């Protein structure tokens, strides 16, 4: 095992800062099995964003390009956290330079680019992973455990929605999120997470139907300066067309179960409402990202006259929590930023050579990222064919979340 690992983050935006903070905290979680983690650089094309994030999260320096990170001898591990259409160039360059890469979801904005990235990962000696962060939410991991250990048993029906409202305001500035092919809007941005969770819990989705993609705000003003994440900013009076979906929905079939997913970026009042319900042979469970340290559970284990959903507060008896928080006592609460920390920890453990049996579950591979994109492409194809059923390519080389 190497004695130290140098870390960099490319992109100092909304999610880049979450990666930067996560690497900082990763070695403080669980037993001290990691080598020394050196927080080396944050690279952003906008020097102000990069410098601010580097200072805030305690990184040694700032760079302005992925090329500088690729060329740096003191960097081993890199998170790529920039617009989806920029992932390919950076990831290919970093892998060619021997860096271990954790790329944000969705893997790319086109299957062609994602396939090229997977081929580059195959050729590389270094590790390439994709960040489907929500699988690290203790509540989601616990519901999966209850399905797999038979407590809930086989999933019959999945109902998921990821409602956000970052695009409600028509004066909200144009950004990379509003450009791209059919399905690259809300479906790729937040639907990628929900589709991954559906398969994490229910196994591979085999068919989608009823695909709907709708744009409801058709143009947006150009910002006068740089915009970060979903921030509002001063805008000009020049408008550009919104190219992709504000709202998307589809039905899905597992090998032996069914369900539906609905996603939105114009759900006023729902800044980040990732919610789902699973109905299984022995009961049901509900998760709501707005209350991440609890789940609701319904089990057929009491007389029906007394039965109903019960609130289960998550704590050290549930996945990730024991040792995974500085204070890991019952009912202390935790949230989405902790999931980024668990993801960073898992990635660093794999890079450091900590055996899988002594590590957090490994991060998803690029083949999972391609499958996730193929699934979303099938939804776009269904929408283009007025909701017709479209088969999803089975994955051959892996099991989601294995
Ligand atoms: N896992 C999650 O929960 C989650 C949440 C949000 C975003 N994401 C993903 O993270 C990625 C970034 O999203 P975001 O919301 O942070 O975007 P953002 O717009 O907030 O930030 C992107 C940053 O990249 C910088 N940038 C642009 N071009 C660059 C280049 N060539 N080199 C270096 N920096 C460059 C920008 O200046 C900006 O600071 C996307 O792939 C998105 O899907 C994941």
Automatic annotation (TrEMBL):
Highest taxon of the lineage: Bacteria
One Pfam family of this chain: GFO_IDH_MocA
Domain GFO/IDH/MocA-like oxidoreductase: 141-285
Classification via InterPro entries: Gfo/Idh/MocA-like_OxRdtase_N, Gfo/Idh/MocA_oxidrdct_glycsds, GFO_IDH_MocA-like_dom, NAD(P)-bd_dom_sf
Keywords: NAD, Oxidoreductase
Domain Gfo/Idh/MocA-like oxidoreductase N-terminal: 6-132
SUPFAM superfamilies documented for this protein: Glyceraldehyde-3-phosphate dehydrogenase-like, C-terminal domain, NAD(P)-binding Rossmann-fold domains
Residue ranges of the TM segments: none
GO-annotated molecular function: nucleotide binding; oxidoreductase activity
Name of the protein described by the UniProt record: Gfo/Idh/MocA family oxidoreductase
Upper lineage: Bacteria, Bacillati, Actinomycetota, Actinomycetes, Micrococcales
